[in-house]
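Sequence in, structure out. Go.
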Amino acid sequence: MSELQLIPVVLSGGSGTRLWPVSREKHPKQLQPLLGDESLLQNTLRRLEGLPLGAPVVVSNQEYRFITAEQLRQLGLADWTLLLEPVGRNTAPALTAAALYATRDGADPLLLATPADHHVRDVEAFRQAIRLGLPDAERGAVVTFGIVPDRPETGYGYIETCADGAAPVVRVLLAFAEKPDPATAAAYVAGGRHLWNSGIFMLRASVWLKAIGRFAPEILAACRKAVTAARDDGDFVRLDADAFAASPADSIDYAVMEKLAAEADLGIPCRVVPLDVGWSDVGAWDALWQAIDRDADDNAVKGDVWLEDSHGNLVIAEHGLVACIGCEDMVVVETADAVLVAPRARTQEVKRIVSRLKAAARSEADLHRKVHRPWGWYDGIDSGERFQVKRIVVSPGATLSLQMHHHRAEHWVVVRGTAKVTRGEETLLLGENESTYIPLGVKHRLENPGQIPLEIIEVQSGSYLGEDDIVRFEDNYGR
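Output:
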């Protein structure tokens, strides 16, 4: 067992619209620090520490590749692969692409496929459950992890199990069950044989490829082409867009697991390790309320929050002070550009608001006011007719693209650090409290040659101020 390496395959492509306004289409919940100082993605990899791990493979949407890469760097990992999906195709193609990539050199590693957006309270118990399942996975079984239910939940799928006499802790997987009605859920919990489906799987790469080839060969064929034609540019492995887009969209459960559990002739045993670890899928605001520590009045708060005569609430303040008086069982979430107020029992309906925002082409559905870029980030402080003000922070050594705009001019004021500015044929070096003007139509570039973050205030003025009014001539990030 000492030479065994377990490769985490972290599935990080979802958008998490039910956690709006914190989760946005291009900055989703797995990249947010909803529980603690690190993001859910970072927490997912942290809780695997101490296991016999190989370099993780993170499967992510290309839209948020830069912030995902930055969060992986912050973990201090020796090595990792960021596998980029050009379009979302659900978890079965994501795992298939990761398995093909992991076997490209002829190896057959053990894979631990896990969503990037779950929360586990008892981390050591989680690690022990992984260790318990390793021998079966190494011998060719598909091992999944079932959450020991603490209530008759109707929002999760269930796994039916039975005890294995040879290994009473690891159970035999009998069948998957769809989300039940309340009476069926109560019977499942009372019977003791049903566990919640966590969506976490451990198996050899070859076992997954054999199963997906049997039950969904069109997914395997499309992903094989996408991986064969993938482009590795150092920071990212980009799956071929046309090939991956041709794959059917399906989940691991529907594409393979439900069929595999019912078919014995393929010769792949299915096992379940029970998980009693304080698990949550953080699927909506009411689930986050259950996962967060609460005070004596059953309130869960984060940020600058003041409560008076209030009970059973989740209140998050990201940007300013939030005060609640006489609130009962409510969710209040404040960000720099949006506020959500809803009864805690109706937070599953938040996605309807997001759909309406998208239909109205509102930017709040996709982006925060603070937008991350590969060189740093910017915050849209204010805007009005023919003007926009941004706070821009450029990381040490980073460089924006050489660009120009057809419809706007820009004024830059250095607040902190040193700016190297290309303006037409000129090169300027600006320190704190110094400024420059970039006329409309002039090529320009901003660089940070210093050792500390460069912070500037940018004032844009013109007839059109959209982010698509950028003509790039040179770019270090391949945009």
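Check: The chain has a mean pLDDT of 93. The longest strand covers residues 194-204.
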